[in-house]
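Notes from hallway chat w/ T.B., transcribed later so I don't forget. T.B. wanted the structure written out for a chain they're using in a teaching module, and asked if we could keep both sequence and structure tokens in one place. Agreed to drop them here.
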Amino acid sequence: MRQVAVVGVGQTRCRLRREDVSFPGLVREAVTAALDDAGIRLADVDAVVFGSSPEYFEGVNHPEKWASGAFGGYLKPHMRIHTGGTVGASTGIAAFYHVASGMYDLVLAVAGDKLSEGSVQAGLSTVYDPILGRPFACGAPSAVALQCRIYMERSGCTSLHGARVAVKNRLHALNNPYAQLRLPDITVEQVLSSPVIASPLRLLDCCPASDGACAMVLACGDRARRLCPRPAWVRGASAVAEGVHYARREWDRPLALHEAARRAYAQAGVSDPRRQVDVAEVYDAFSYQEMIWYEGLGLAEEGRGWRLIEDGVTTLGGELPVNPSGGVLSTNTIGATAMMRQAEAALQVMGRAQARQVDGARLAVAHGWGGAIQFHTVMVLSSEAP
């Protein structure tokens, strides 16, 4: 496969409601920013990969047709991706393979959602199997609460650790101008006293619903070097799904994430992620999950993810910062959320993350999850070409 790098990144301001712009306009905002960042025009793009959540979240069927003129899909080769919570990451990975295959030299990847215009809970409650899943209509918080309780019982993690994750990432978000929730005075005590959503999850352990979009420009090796003085080279990418309904499934041991990480690290030549990875952007839709993902990504020993929080390892300025952008706990558009992890990881290795920059970041990992907490994506980005 050919060398591929991210050479341009664009994000929108994310809010609970972006009433100042339509969905096509929101997507165009991210596309324009990414093209400007890469120093190119839409006419230079060979193909477009567009991602959005299931139509329930948009409130519009086939949103790619509605917005194609805005994001550049009109009269260009165009692929739509819709893989639920991982859609943004799946879109970025698809764009990577568009270029790596040799079919295109310059590809635009864009994803977004206006969750304020659809019904998130209706989508989460009806998207699953009509016999085995739909009657429960539990949505994401209740399912994740079960996962978290299992993890707490196995590992010794406590509600205090979950609260510390929530505080860490909300404080990180103060450095991110695109983040929705920027809470300067948040404390562990506030998290622990906020209303219960689904025990052990409290309100401040949970992500918001956001309107927003993200875009990236990916280029082949020669074009990347001409366009960008320090590209973010994609060194590994993997997407793996495990089953949903099978006996003895251990929700706190994400088999698909372990496998996706193993494959992406092998491609990138990473043998010791705990020591080689400089920064990680993980899909922390709920605070406790961040510690589970540490373990799935090989950044902590099994059952010991909470120790990284306790020891301050993953704070900005710590040994291995995780979610210096504020993560999903601060912004969650669903459609663009996982691409934002890739975009933020790219900015880190490009040395352009501004106030949220990790000093000396050369190797970054971006993670996404979706479905019934059983579909995971991993992308490894580096300042060094493969």
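Follow-up for T.B.: The first strand starts at residue 4 and ends at 11. Might be a good example for the class.
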